[in-house]
Each structure stands twice: as structure tokens, then as C-alpha cells.
Design brief:
The complex is a heterodimer of chains A (about 260) and B (about 325).
Chain A lengths: L1 E6 L1 E3 L21 E3 L1 H17 L2 E8 L4 H10 L3 E6 L8 H13 L5 E5 L10 H9 L3 E11 L2 E7 L4 E8 L2 E5 L11 H7 L4 E4 L12 E7 L8 E2 L4 H15 L4
Parallel strand pairs in A: 1-4, 1-6, 4-5, 5-11, 6-10, 7-10
Antiparallel strand pairs in A: 2-3, 7-8, 8-9
Helix pairs in contact in A: 2-5, 3-4
Chain B lengths: L2 E4 L2 E2 L2 E2 L2 H16 L3 E7 L5 H8 L5 E6 L8 H15 L3 E5 L2 H13 L4 E11 L2 E8 L4 E7 L5 E5 L18 E2 L13 E7 L12 E5 L9 H11 L2 E4 L1 H5 L20 E5 L5 H7 L4 E6 L12 E4 L2 H15 L1
Parallel strand pairs in B: 1-4, 1-6, 4-5, 5-11, 6-10, 7-10, 13-14, 13-15, 15-16, 16-17
Antiparallel strand pairs in B: 2-3, 7-8, 8-9
Helix pairs in contact in B: 3-4, 5-8
């Protein structure tokens, strides 16, 4: 099975975000970056499918120069090779344009399965995988909690709302957007990290792929959200704060 | 050019979030001075009651797409049928609720028409005659104003709870109900959905709990959970969790609060080390009183909290447990 896993690199989860001077994004110079967490589950699922059925896992990432470290990490975890579509604009591009760049790179590979995470922790559009399926002309399913290979295709377990599930069958090649929690992701081993250095990481530009990066939607302004509720912040040493909170819950909110 | 709201039904029952999408459509229709049409999809029979219900809500017309291949949802069937409708009707804006189903097919539908889709919006307004949409970035830590580049139709989905369905008004004479033709072939539908099912019955019913102590990623390690359980015990509370905690297998899925878990509305909800991603907030924002403990003062959970403590849960939780034990 030849499996393509799409990765995005996003600001690390515990980052303190500051808005940039143009009020159009966050100040990237302050940040450290990591693989988008939902994508780590897609990568893990790809690695497991390869271990079970044989084949190859190719990691594709569209992002600025810094994103190469995300691909290296995936290679260290066991992916076979990487493709980095590199352009600074890809740091915050809309799903449609990103998917066009990914599709152009993936089309050159004769894949059986494309895996993506469900959404990104930065922009959170939750669209790139589904658009990619359309551009690649492949059937797809999203929010996947289980993947089984069958004769002539796959059977997947889709999560629906409010605790419902559904199995869906489809032929290959196909695209799946993987739900977080489908598996337990592995850490890279020292051996893996060493091996990763010798693995192929191909760098291409959108221009080389014949893709223009003209955005379909534009972030006009980024700002801190307004609070919907007045929060009373309680301060002091833990013991004092605990006593204050208990007092408030008993006599102000009257819920205890 | 009108505004087209695509409603979601399953087996003759609405997805309630669709009414919020309709409310957003009506609001934008007024602001942009455009008529609002509502569409629904389903099999050839059994949609009459839903069509009639929809027609009562002051929409310009109801467009009911009926086809034997639309009885069971598939992304191929829905995208193809709606694409035909949109190409014929030429709407300015296509609105949907940001449901699991919309996430599954709407990006494909928009892409098949070579158009962009602004998903999961929490607000909208009109600036210089054009619509501007508000979205959350970085899991709710930031907001952004987003606009479309290029021409219509524009695709938009609205976040659960962002628009008020209870403000929808029934208006005058019922709208005409149309049944536009749909041309679909079984060979065009490449996925085969099997029956829907629920996992084993739940043994914990968080929905009826009066007090919930919920724990998130901030707990760091399952070995730290007893501290939280002790607090829950002191309060006579149930333990809940955010998705990452259940994903990691630290607590069973049945304790998960949020869009993919349970929706709860206790009188007291104590969120420990939960950042407050929207998927979590939609499951608990109906709680009467919310307490949040988080070391990150910009965590979105504080937006819905009545009482906030910026600090380490490892300091606060034992202190709170002790305070409760010594006061009772």
C-alpha cells in the first residue's frame, strides 16, 4: 500500500500568541512550532497500515522553510520519504490554495491512500483533506476512527455526532481525514532520528508544481476575542484562593 | 442573487444546528437586502412534513432535492445534487451549519465549483456592501475577520451556538415548495455507507450530573488523576474530561464532554487544565456556574468562566479539596 500522509506545521500548543504589527497574523519570530496534533494521528495510522500491509509512507507538507523540521520528525518516526512544498506564503494560506499545492505534488505519485488530520490547530478550517480528495478525483471519508483493508478497497469507521458511528466502504485510491484518538501515536526513537538523516526529503516550489498561490480568502484582521462573560479572577496563594472560591460558590453563585 | 441555506435532516428529523444556519441566512439576507431560499435533501418520499415546516419560516422558497440516491447521506451524492442546484439557482451565498456532515461534503462541493468556503464562522457583518465573516483562530485564542477573494457563490458554515435559532420568525403565507430535478447515477457514488450504530450503552450519565469536575490536557499524566477524583468525591461530583484526555485513554470516552461526547448543563462545572477549544465549549456552556483553573490566562475557557484562577491545577486542586473537606 502506498500511503501519502499530509502534515502541517503549526505554532506549539502552549505558545503565547502575540498579534503582529500588521494585525494580520501572529508574530512568528516569538514562536516554536510542532506537527499539527491531528496530523500526528494520520501519520501514526499510515505507519501502522504500512507495518501491517507493507508498502511505503510518503509525507507531504506545504509550508515555509521552517516546516522541514516537521517532515524530519515524521521521517524519524518511520515515514520513508518526504516532499516539502516550500513557500513562505504557505504559513497561513487558505485550505483551497493549500490543497491545490498538495494535489499537484501528490498527483505525481501513484498512491493508494491519502491520510490527513481532521483540522489544523491554527486556522482550523477542517477542509484541506476533503478539497484534496475532490482535486485528486478520489472518494473520501472524514472523522475516521478505524481503517480496515478489504478485498478491492477499505472499510472505515466514521464518527457521527452525539456518540453515533457508521462503517463506510470504498474503493482505492481514496482519502481519509483521520479523527484524533484513533490510535496511540509513537515517539521517534534515537535510531529513527539517526536514520531520518539519510532519508529523501525533496523540496519543490509551488511554481515548479505549476501552482499559483493566489488566495481565495483573505484574513483582514486578527484580534483578541471579546469575552462573553464577566469572569471574576481570584488571586493569591493556593490556600487563600481555594477559600475565596468556596465562599463565592456557596454565597454568591449558591451552587454548593 | 439570493442566499441559499442548506438544511440537514436525517431520517425525517432536522439537525437542530440547521436552524441556526437559517437564522444566520435571514440576518445576512436583511443586511444585504437579498431573499433567502432554503434547501433540503432526501429520498423521494417522507420529506413532506419537513418541507412544510420550513416553508412557514418566511423564506422566499423551499428547494427540496428528492432522489432515491439521497436517502442515505454520501458526500458524492450530496455534493453532486447541490452543485446542480447551485449552478441553476446562482446564489450569492450558500450557508450551512458547521456539522460533521457539512465538514464531510461542503469543502468538496465548493471545490467542485472552484470556489472558497469560509467554515466555522461565529459572526458576520456587512462592510462597504460586502460580507465580512468572523472566525476563531488558534483554537479560540484569536479572532479574525475574513473576506472572500474572487467571485460568488460564497460558501460559509456557522459554528454551533453562534446564531440564535430562537429569533427565527414564522412569516405570513407559506413559501412555495419546489422540487428541482436531480440527475444522479449510482455509479457516481463511490462510497457505500452501512448502518449507523452506537457503541455499548453508557454507564455514566454526565447529562444529569449536578456538579462536574472536568479535567483536560493540563493534568499531564494519568497518574495525577486521583487528585481530581478526590476533589470530585468531596463535592459529590462526576468526573468529566476534554477530548485529548479520552483520546489518550486516560479516562473512558463516556466521560468526554463536547461536540463528540456528551452535552452537559450542571449547576457547577469546574474545568481543570482545559484550554476550552470550541469542541469542548459547545458541550458545557449551558452550565449555570463555570469555574476555570488554567495556567494560561489567555485560554478561551476563561471566556465562559464565572470564576477564574490563573495558576497550576496541581496547587489549586489539593487546596480546594482540603477547604471543602474542612468546611463540611
Amino acid at each position: 500500500m502506498k500511503i501519502i500522509v499530509c502534515l502541517k506545521q503549526v505554532p506549539a500548543r502552549d505558545s503565547v500568541l502575540r498579534i503582529d504589527d500588521a494585525q494580520a497574523w501572529v508574530r512568528e519570530t516569538d514562536l516554536s512550532f510542532e506537527i499539527n496534533e491531528p496530523d500526528t494521528y494520520a501519520l501514526e495510522e499510515g505507519l501502522r497500515l504500512k507495518e501491517k500491509h507493507g508498502g511505503e509512507v510518503v509525507v507531504v507538507c506545504a509550508g515555509p522553510a521552517r516546516a522541514a523540521s516537521a517532515i524530519r520528525e515524521a521521517l524519524a518516526k518511520g515515514a520513508d520519504r518526504g516532499i516539502h512544498i516550500e513557500d513562505e506564503a504557505l504559513a497561513r494560506l487558505d485550505s483551497f490554495t493549500t490543497a491545490r499545492a498538495l494535489a499537484a505534488a501528490i498527483r505525481a505519485e501513484s498512491f493508494d491512500l491519502v491520510l490527513t488530520g481532521l483540522q489544523s490547530d491554527d486556522l482550523g478550517f477542517s477542509q484541506t483533506g476533503v478539497i484534496l480528495a475532490e482535486l485528486l478525483g478520489a472518494p473520501h471519508a472524514t472523522i475516521i476512527m478505524e481503517v480496515q483493508k478489504m478485498e478491492g478497497g477499505i472499510k472505515v469507521k466514521r464518527e457521527l455526532e452525539a456518540g453515533w458511528f457508521q462503517y463506510v466502504e470504498m474503493p482505492l485510491p481514496a482519502l481519509l481525514a483521520i479523527q484524533s484518538g484513533i490510535n496511540k501515536v509513537r515517539y521517534a526513537t534515537l535510531m529513527g532520528i539517526k536514520k531520518a538523516k539519510t532519508k529523501e526529503l525533496k523540496r519543490v516550489t509551488p511554481a515548479e508544481l505549476g501552482v499559483d498561490l493566489k488566495p481565495r480568502q483573505i484574513i483582514r484582521r486578527v484580534y483578541a476575542p471579546q469575552k462573553s462573560k464577566q469572569t471574576q479572577f481570584l488571586e493569591g496563594p493556593p490556600k487563600e484562593v481555594a477559600a475565596k472560591l468556596l465562599e463565592k460558590l456557596k454565597f454568591e453563585a449558591r451552587v454548593l | 442573487m439570493s442566499i441559499l441555506v442548506v438544511m440537514e435532516q436525517q431520517g425525517g428529523a432536522w439537525n437542530k444546528m440547521s436552524w441556526e444556519a437559517l437564522a444566520a441566512g435571514v440576518e445576512l439576507g436583511k443586511a444585504l437586502d437579498r431573499p433567502v431560499a432554503a434547501a433540503l435533501l432526501g429520498s423521494e418520499t417522507g420529506l413532506e412534513a419537513l418541507e412544510a415546516e420550513l416553508a412557514a419560516y418566511g423564506v422566499e422558497r423551499v428547494l427540496s432535492l428528492r432522489h432515491s440516491l439521497l436517502g442515505e447521506y454520501t458526500p458524492d451524492g450530496y455534493a453532486l445534487a447541490l452543485r446542480q442546484l447551485i449552478q441553476r439557482a446562482g446564489p450569492l451565498l450558500v450557508l450551512l451549519a458547521h456539522t460533521y456532515q457539512a465538514r464531510d461534503f461542503a469543502p468538496k462541493l465548493a471545490a467542485s465549483l472552484d470556489r472558497a468556503f469560509i467554515s466555522d464562522v461565529v459572526g458576520c457583518r456587512v462592510d462597504d456592501g460586502g460580507p465580512v465573516f468572523v472566525r476563531q483562530l488558534f483554537q479560540g485564542k484569536m479572532n479574525a475577520d475574513v473576506v472572500f477573494a474572487g467571485g460568488p457563490p460564497y460558501f460559509v458554515s456557522v459554528q454551533a451556538g453562534a446564531f440564535r435559532a430562537d429569533r427565527l420568525e414564522k412569516g405570513g403565507a407559506p413559501a412555495p415548495i419546489e422540487h428541482p430535478s436531480v440527475s444522479l447515477d449510482a455509479a457516481q457514488i463511490r462510497t457505500r455507507p452501512l448502518e449507523r450504530f452506537q457503541e455499548a450503552k453508557r454507564t455514566v450519565d454526565l447529562a444529569t450530573a449536578e456538579i462536574i469536575v472536568a479535567v483536560g490536557r493540563g493534568i499531564k499524566d494519568p497518574a495525577n488523576l486521583p487528585m481530581v477524583e478526590k476533589l470530585a468525591q468531596a463535592l459529590g461530583a462526576e468526573v468529566g474530561a476534554s477530548r485529548p484526555v479520552c483520546d489518550s485513554g486516560w479516562l473512558p470516552l463516556e466521560r468526554q464532554v463536547g461536540s463528540s461526547g456528551q452535552t452537559v448543563a450542571p449547576k457547577l462545572y469546574i474545568a481543570l487544565g482545559i484550554s476550552g477549544a470550541i469542541q469542548h465549549l459547545v458541550g458545557m456552556k449551558g452550565s449555570r456556574t463555570v469555574v476555570a483553573v488554567n495556567k494560561d490566562s489567555s485560554a478561551p475557557i476563561f471566556e465562559v468562566a464565572d470564576y477564574g484562577i490563573v495558576g497550576s491545577l496541581f496547587d489549586i486542586v489539593p487546596a480546594l479539596t482540603e477547604a471543602i473537606q474542612s468546611s463540611s
